[in-house]
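Quick check before the chapter quiz. The format below is the same one you will see on the exam, so make sure you can read both the input and the output lines.
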Amino acid sequence: QVQLVESGGGLVQPGGSLRLSCAASGNIFSILDMGWYRQAPGNQRDLVATISNGGSTNYADSVKGRFTISRDNARDTVYLQMNSLKPEDTAVYYCHTRRWGMDYWGKGTLVTVSS
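Here is the expected output.
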């Protein structure tokens, strides 16, 4: 069993920054590939970024150069640093991993980019 808890969302002005955190339980964080997804109202849930257990990263084209995913295995935590935020980045952001053939999701954290 893996439990994921996101934090760090909030209201930010266009051009601002936020850092999201996702804390994982289960004592197996270091071997997990982790990802961030987001879902805007009325839209499907889309991939934002992933990081492998070895540290390889992948980003959606819409966030390349603005967002950075990282992980701290000592803290069982994955981060999403979001810079130069745009109104279209407004969404609920979810942490994700997959293990034992099952998908695990956090409850999400809301990011609102508005002036």
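If your answer matched, good. The CA atoms of residues 60 and 77 lie 21 Å apart.
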